[in-house]
Amino acid sequence: MKKIALAGAVVGLGLLVACQPAAQKAEAQKPKKKLSKYEKFKIAFYQNQDKWQKYCSNEAQLVPQGISIEEFKKAMLATIKFPPGGKVMGDWKRGEKLFGDPKKGGRSRRGNCYACHCGDPQIIACGNIGPSLRGYGKRGIDPKQTYMRIYNSWAFNPCSAMPRLGYWGVLKPEEIADIVAFLHSPESPINR
Amino acid sequence: MGKRALLALGLFAGGAVVGTLAVAKEKLPEHLRELLELGMHPGHVFVDEGRDYYHNLKGPNGKTCATCHGQDGAKLEGAYAKMPRYYKDIDKVADIDLRILSCMTKYMGFDPKDKKFRKEYDKKLRVPLATYVASLSNGMKINVEIKHPKEKEMYELGKKIWFTRAGAREFSCAMCHTVLAGKRIRLQGLPNPVKAKSYNHWPAYRFGSDRMWTMEDRVTSCFKAYFLFTKRWDEKKDWVKKPPLYSKEVIAVELYMKHASNGGIIEVPGLLR
């Protein structure tokens, strides 16, 4: 929809400047045929599966025999990018919204951590797929470790159920730092 | 109207149901069980609607479903127990949703390329018709066979898809329904439809959303959790929410799951929270 409108605007602008060349240009840049829903699904499901997901796609859903777990972790570690200045703790209030907005009952489109983890004791709609993160900041864990774990959980636990949120770009480095602050900050409801 | 009224009644009778897990019939919340005991299953509205289309909906060539399959679905008893299966006339493995669509386009004169018809079928006719036809196999045992080469191929594909990790959430059917079965994703318990033979209660009426779902709806909807995308997010967000209806992939996992449910007694429409 947007694309069509844009193409229209480009053609219109071109016509104002010079009729002929614009028409030719529009011809040359004819937008590619729109992908069908099924074609998009196939790209997303087959083509965009990465080789690490392929390794984990077995009956046990774990690293299969013949693949070195150490190599796997190393490769995953190498994907981790840090925010500018290497600051792994950001703003915990922003982190709270990404983790799960209390105003929305703990939901969030992207982090959605409460789907699997409990945290703020006020959010009771939390899953038990991952360990509870209540009091996480008091466990003496290095915030940098936490950052890396959220960026790419498979650097620690290959094939885990925990998604590699930074790796796929679901969360930006700065956003992960905000979530780390939410987990570590003494003021955060996670630790109060 | 009727459905809404029942819903209200149900909520009234049972009170709040937050967090109640109803993955199988035995585990239905009290108020749903009461409704059933009173003989008031909200899914029956869909069976009736489907029966009506079956007898009265005429294709462009004047035929109805009953023209070929008999009054009251006489010749379709037990058909659903064997689906998905290979059908020679369309040279495909079809589930109930696709089988009925194929009948309408092949034998009743509907144009498969007519967008208006497709929309009407997908959104309005498909679920009631599928529910009605499925109900004609009530009390029978699920008996899916993997014999024809295309059935074997689809079964293998379905099994493969079951274990395939994909999307920005690294999910697979197996992750949620085999490895994590019994755990909670938020408050929602994760069932194991392969082990539990739960195919026997599909199509099912879902109380919470006041909707009737076929297994196609269930499977495609589970795909929403995957965060499937066509491009990496940092380049450009481009979401693929779910595979389209009747895709080979959807029918393949249905075949895989229903084969695992062989022997289960069909009891539809199911009733879920």
Describe the structure.
The complex is a heterodimer of chains A (192) and B (273). Chain A is mainly α and 192 residues long. Chain A folds into 2 domains: 2-31; 68-184, Orthogonal Bundle (Cytochrome Bc1 Complex, Chain D, domain 2), CATH 1.10.760.10. Chain A is built from 8 helices and no strands. The longest helix of chain A is centred in the N-terminal third of the chain and has 16 residues, at 2-17. With 273 residues, chain B is mainly alpha-helical. Chain B folds into 3 domains: 2-37, no CATH class; 42-135, Cytochrome c-like domain (Cytochrome Bc1 Complex, Chain D, domain 2, Orthogonal Bundle), CATH 1.10.760; 149-272, Cytochrome c-like domain (Cytochrome Bc1 Complex, Chain D, domain 2). Chain B is built from 10 helices and 9 strands. Chain B has helices at 2-14, 30-37, 44-56, 65-69, 96-107, 115-135, 149-163, 173-179, 215-222, 248-260, and strands spanning 85-87, 92-94, 184-185, 188-189, 204-206, 211-213, 228-229, 239-240, 270-272. Chain B has a 3-stranded mixed beta sheet. Chain B has a two-stranded antiparallel sheet with strand order 1-2. Chain B starts with a helix and ends with a strand. Classes of the chains: A mainly alpha (192), B mainly alpha (273).
Helix-strand blueprint:
The complex is a heterodimer of chains A (192) and B (273).
Chain A (H helix, E strand, L loop, with lengths): L1 H16 L1 H10 L8 H11 L3 H6 L12 H9 L14 H9 L42 H9 L21 H12 L8
Chain B lengths: L1 H13 L15 H8 L6 H13 L8 H5 L15 E3 L4 E3 L1 H12 L7 H21 L13 H15 L9 H7 L4 E2 L2 E2 L14 E3 L4 E3 L1 H8 L5 E2 L9 E2 L7 H13 L9 E3 L1
Parallel strand pairs in B: 5-9
Antiparallel strand pairs in B: 1-2, 3-4, 5-6, 7-8
Helix pairs in contact in B: 1-2, 3-6, 5-6, 7-10, 9-10
Strand-residue proportion of chain B: 5-15%
Q: What is the arithmetic mean of pLDDT of chain A?
A: 87
Number of strands of chain A: 0
**Structural class, from helix and strand content of chain A?**
mainly alpha
Order of helices and strands of chain A: HHHHHHHH
Shape label of chain B? globular
User: How many structural domains are formed by the residues of chain B?
Assistant: 3
Coarse shape of chain A: globular
> For the CA atoms, what is the radius of gyration of chain A?
22 Å
- End-to-end C-alpha gap of chain B: 19 Å
Describe the oligomeric state of these chains in a short phrase.
heterodimer
Mean pLDDT of chain B equals: 88
The total beta strand count of chain B reads 9
Straight-line distance between termini of chain A: 48 Å
Radius of gyration of chain B: 19 Å
Q: What is the beta-strand fraction of chain A? A: under 5%
CATH top level class name of the largest domain in chain B: Mainly Alpha
> Considering DSSP H and I runs of 4 or more, what fraction of the residues of chain A is helical?
40-55%
Strand order of the largest sheet of chain B: 6-5-9
